[in-house]
Amino acid sequence: MPSSAGHHTFNRRSFLSTSLGASAGLIAAPTLATWWQATESKAATAFPAFVDDYTTNITANLTAETNAVVRALGGFAQIWKTGSAWNTGIPLKPEILRANMRYCARLTQRRTEAQAREAFVYDRQHQSYAMIGALGPLAELYRSGAKAVTSITSAPDGIPATKINDAVPADAPAGSALGAGSYDSDLGQVAKLVDTVRGPFASGNPAKFAFQYPRPWRMNEESEVVDTGTTDALGFPVYDSEVVVVTQLLRQRGTDPAEDGGFPSGHTNAFHLAALAFAYAVPERFQEIVTRAFELSHTRIMSGMHSTVDVLGGRVMATALAAAALADPKNATLKAAARKQAAEYFQARTGTTADTLFAHAHSADRDSDPYADRKANARLVEPKLTYVLTRQGRSEELTVPKGAEVLLETRQPYLDAAQRREVLRTTALPSGYVLLDGWEQWGRLNLFAAADGYGAFDSEVTVTLNAADGGFGAADTWRNDICGTGGLVKLGTGSLTLTGANRYTGGTTVEAGVLVAGSKEALGRGDVRVKGGTLSTGDRSVRVRGGYAQAGVLDVTLDRGADPALVVDGRAVLERGSKLVVRFDAEQPPRSGSTVAVIGARSLQGRFAEITVAEEGWTAQQIFTAHGVSVRLLKK
Predict the structure, then answer these.
(1) Assign residue 58 a region: left if phi > 0, alpha if psi is -120 to 50, beta otherwise?
(2) What are the entry keywords (predicted)?
(3) Who contacts 297 (Cβ-Cβ below 8 Å, separation ≥6)?
(4) Of 349, 365, 385, which residue sits at a domain end?
């Protein structure tokens, strides 16, 4: 199995002299800039899609014309002009690179001792093992089932006497392995998938050699390399930089600057590659896994080893590379086996089913699961999507890169490939972030947001969930604030919950199954029609901005409040056969004999054919008013 990634073992000087000729040198900056201009003028359409060309990412290919990763990171050529040597590059957008260095300096100067020690652990620990912590209540089950171990669990005091690398501890159980674990284990297919996604074409080295952007501790605020002519206690040259490397990592620094480029961050690439492989196999923790990848990548800046642009570059390349590996037909059997193995293993160990595993995977509080709070996760991820980059230029529509939809394949199995592409498109970052706007614009994808469903309905969206499919195929929640001129049609026997402050105007139709309005504005700003199935308002008052027509079931939870369960701005029509299900709020149930509003509307036509009270021993009578219908609740 592969060893821990993130460090160079390739001798670039030897490679250039033997393979490119002594005068070949680095990829010239004009080559990158010229290629970028060609891309902008649509002249680069002759290149294959990244997912079809990712195997070109090898150290024999150091140009944008020959290497798909260098192409995908081509936006960096608008920020940095590679020089003829490692220390002769020129900032093309100095305001960005100055902000980059100021950010790094501030962060490393202000970090706590605990943050420094944490940064050491995640520098030295195998990146795939580090990602297991994202699994929350499933993490320890994974470690034991995969026989995954590490020797890096804490930071030493001061500078270690020698370099430190992760290794299988001497007292580890037989068959234990670093990283994602042993192939000869109950989770061997998952471990193999992680290693495959982090395979031979996933290295950041070719791009590092192509761009030759130095580590932050070698640069000053102007992104210039200034050697002070002195050395530190370890014999390393001292550069004019305000970036402070973690003490415990000083000996881990690269000794040859030409072999030790900063952009893109290899650790960041490894974290996100492992994360997206784990997220494919264990989608019940998709957002938490993505969050941890961002958090661990941030420790690269905290450690002083990398800058913000390095980390952004690592994430961009990992997103593209993970999609390429997962979309590669030769990995189809493996990825299906890994998903199946993970689901069966965790269900068996937790006594859950496909329908209840998600709840178990989110059953811990923040004391034992640092990713238990989704809103806190969103706050952690959001600023790290762009760091110091500022948005410029006009907004341009994203064409989702070919194959990117595979990243959501297990998280949203009820959507087809075209629909998952729409999810990625409508949740993507806006254009105008120079580094993220590279070829195919992989940097604009926001997988955290995409896990919460559509960001917009730009045409009619038909979604089918079936209870028999189990897991996400049976029930899911879309948490984004959905806009757009399109509408939603709910099909299938399963359940879909909308929790956003939605603004889509094309209307909502329930034909089968259950649609749960999980917020007051969940149903958007169009008409709502319940042709079949059930519309549930939960324990809140839900607003319909247009008209309302019902032939199916309305399921409401009533309390002692005065607001109707369903507030309709337009006309409400209860068609023949429409039904009402009444539930009581557990904390403030209505009293016997009280009258509680169910629908408030501009006008109402029709009546419920049947009313069911979920609580035993109660009955409900319809009472019609000038603007709606209420129920009088009586205890038998």
Answers:
(1) beta
(2) Signal
(3) 265, 267, 268, 271, 272, 311, 314, 315, 384
(4) 385
For residue 416, being part of any structural domain is answered with: no
Are residues 599 and 625 in contact, defined by beta-carbon separation less than 8 angstroms?
Answer: no
**In degrees, to the nearest 5, what angle opens at C-alpha 39 toward C-alphas 34 and 43?**
95
- The confidence score (pLDDT) of residue 393 equals 85
DSSP state of 19: I
Evaluate whether residue 77 is within a structural domain: yes
Nearest to 386 by CA among 64, 4, 67, 75: 75
Say how far apart CA 25 and CA 28 lie, in whole Å: 8
H helices present in 362-401, as ranges: 374-381
351: left (phi over 0), alpha (psi -120 to 50) or beta: left
Last residue of a domain, one of 359, 385, 411: 385
Residue 203 in 3-state DSSP?
Answer: coil
Residue 519 — pLDDT band, cuts 50, 70, 90?
very high
How many domains in the chain?
2
Instruction: Read off the amino acid at residue 574.
Output: L
**Same domain, yes or no, for 281 and 158?**
yes
Helix (H) or strand (E) holding 118: helix 113-124
Q: Compute the chain's Rg from CA coordinates.
A: 28
Residues 354 and 464 in one domain: no
CA distance 321 to 324: 5
Tens of pLDDT, residue by residue over 276-322, are: 999 999 999 999 999 999 999 999 999 999 999 999 999 999 999 99
Retrieve residue 107's tokens: 């962060």
Q: Answer whether the bond into residue 264 is a cis peptide, omega within 30°.
A: yes
| Cα distances (Å, whole numbers) of residue 109 to 115, 290, 302, 304, 405 | 11, 27, 9, 9, 40
In a domain, 581, yes or no: yes
Largest CA distance in the chain: 95
Q: Which domain holds residue 314?
A: 12-385
What's the gap between Cα 279 and its chain centre?
Answer: 9
> What count of other Cβ atoms lies within 10 Å of the Cβ of residue 521?
19
CB 440 within 8 A of CB 50: yes
Identify the band that residue 636 occupies on the pLDDT scale cut at 50, 70 and 90: confident
Q: Which residue(s) pair with 536 in the sheet? A: 516, 555
Single-letter amino acid code for the residue at 118? E
Under a CB-based contact definition with an 8 Å cutoff, are residues 34 and 71 in contact? no
Q: Cα(580)–Cα(439) distance, rounded to whole angstroms?
A: 53
Q: Are strands 566-568 and 542-544 parallel, antiparallel or unpaired?
A: parallel
Contact 541, 562 (CB under 8 A): no
Amino acid at 103: Y
pLDDT band at 187 (very low <50, low <70, confident <90, very high): very high
Helix (H) or strand (E) holding 426: helix 417-427
Structure tokens at 589: 């149930």
Residues 6+ apart with CB under 8 A from 21: none
DSSP letter assigned to residue 470: -
Verify that 119 and 224 share a domain, yes or no. yes
Does residue 530 contact residue 508 with C-beta atoms inside 8 Å?
no
